[in-house]
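Field: COMPLEX_INPUT
Field: COMPONENT_COUNT = three
Field: RESIDUE_TOTAL = 793
Field: MODE = joint
Values follow.
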Amino acid sequence: MADRVFMKGTEAIAEAATRAGCRFFAGYPITPQNEIPEYFARRMPEVGGTFVQGESEVASVNMLYGAASTGIRAMSSSSSCGISLYSEGVSYCASARIPMVYVNVQRGGPGIGAIQPAQQDYLQATKASGNGGFRMIVLAPSTVQECVDMTYEAFDLAFRDENPVLVLTDGVMGTMMEPVVLPPMKSDEELKELRDAYKHRAIIGHPLGQQAYCRPGSVGTGQEEVNKEAVKLYATWDKDVRVEEFMMEDAEIVFAAYGISARISRAVIKELRAQGIKAGMIRPITISPFPYETFKNLDFNRVKGILDVEMSIPAQMRWDLDYAIQGACPIKECLRSGGQLLTNDQVMKAAQELIKEVL
Amino acid sequence: MAEEKKVYSRTKGIIDGAVSGFCPGCMHSTIHKLIGEAAEDLGKLDKLVRVEGVGCCGLGQFYVTCDETIAAHGRACAVATGIKRSSPDSLIYTYQGDGDLAAIGLAETMSAANRGENFTVIFVNNGIYGMTGGQMAPTTLLGMKATTAPQGRKAEEHGYPMHMCEILNQLTAPYYLERVSCDTPQNVIKTRNAIKKAFQYQLEGKGFSMVEIVTSCPTNWGLSTLDSLDFLRDKMFTEYPLGVYRDKGAEK
Amino acid sequence: MERNIMMAGFGGQGVMTMGKLLAEATSEATDLAVTFFPSYGAAMRGGTANCFVVISDDEIGAPVSYSLEDLIVMNGPSLHAFIDNVKPGGNLFINSTIVTDPIERDDVTVVEAPVTQMAIDMGNERALNIIMLGVYVGFTEAVPEEVIIKGIEHKFEKKPKLIAPNVDAFKKGLEIGKAARK
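Field: COMPLEX_OUTPUT
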């Protein structure tokens, strides 16, 4: 196929961001996402953008805060324990309503964890990526193509909402290579237009009386208003919930999985179908906002059990599943962590155990 | 009637009629005036961007007319890096206290200086944390009492005061480093000139500059305004000698 | 039909290059789904190196499998570490120059090729991986051989002198692979 390019997840993310108009990247080395900053270091000079290797994750995310406050499309990436250090800057961006995009290529945790892939940051990503109870749209790709498409789109979402957007992926997808079709490169004219549209609030200097400011908080009582405005934004996200329902028409066994776990589940579901088992999958594509309704509205006369497949121990998405279905059917967990990859065989075994229990 | 000529007016860098929220005897308000004047002299008020540190510095947000943002505690130099790299035509300064710049933000300060980032740091050193209530700073003098060093700073327990101009002067990249004060009219003028020079260098793309302004904090020093000026001259200037530490522009 | 392939050896044997070449060439010249997943030890050099390639006419689930259609081992330790991951009826490709231990399974097809020695004999020591890729493709026909030849041409676009010797190396391997089919 002529349009296909064979790319590594991390590099595909970086190229997609460049094509989406990202012209500022700051980051700090951490495995397994180093190809993202390395790619930007090569790519940004070619398109008139800026790459800065920060002295730390803390510095990098604050550079991102500064850069994004000027209205430029700006991005950063890190992994798990590095992302913990992003909490400060991300929270500031959320408070000051700065549009920026960042990527977490997850590894094992907590602590330094393992350099190998995991999905150990679900709750951090969806519930508390920093202090202050803010929320973000969190996109969870499950193929390298989705890494590309979601990174490309993340900038539009960030600017639409004037809020940070997180792309949550993992070391498998970051490291693996797959064919992708890349989106078109946004032209300099398009980017200028986008930046001009933000100019009134860009922190770049203005004539007297047109001061722009970017404040991550308020002295006095103003903060409550900031919080109420944020809640108004979050309330608009029902339309942004994205979920894939795979073979769900008659499913009795429902896999719940996102990202890398979902693609593995998909293969297992096909095998189960071939064996005559009615299996299907609900895959949250936005893990925030989470597709609660899709789970809540399942026909529990038909659905006999849910298999929560995650590369995390303990289970984390489980909290959202419990909240959504309120005990309407049993949930079984199929988990690996610490860089131990889920394989088709392990997921198949867990599915068969669940089937034995509920069917 | 003799012709009247306006010889002085308040800088447009400060909101018309605004009264600063700083304590009496504090030099922050003077410094804000000087920054406004320096930018105005250069005709760059409309390009001026302020990146504010946390602490008393933050009160300036109610006072200045330029674009401004507040950085997380200590991160002003990182935020300014992001802004300047994305908007090179802006005239950018960070406004930071000693805790912000020399303790929590030391890595950001050193690294921005070492990269030779093309912006200006206004560093207000009064040897103590102000807004949080008189805690010990990296620049607190030996023997000086702080709420977190009630017996006074002890070398064996707390180490020694940090000298930021001298420390940054170890780096190759910084273009201009000067330590000034605002205790006398002469020193106020020197400070104004230093800020203007730093801004000028920035406009010429010369790179990193820092103007350290040694000031008093009567409130947290527990001294009257006048006594705090004596302390400033007797003690602070001894530990932190005023002067030019680096001026690559003058070397040529 | 899905093929799960693992390639394993020492760092420096070109294991990653072999996997990437197979996967990338397949991506470029066919409509098949394909993934490549590298797995390194913590050390930058001299450690173990292995990688996984999955080729399928349908969507691919896990890019890593321990239930393999094909295993390529370039050194002794890899044989012992991974032989149990080959499915019954699967294929085991062995660099017989340095892997001399007996194969303790009789439910897999073993294809031996002394690729280290062959590469030395060809005066192109580094080409052992390309020879082995030839053996693999010749035996399995996982992808048409032209796909890999195109891939080699593409890979050495900027060093055109290296194209011919590598295509030669690949063809040497192909012969062994094809012969082993009979």
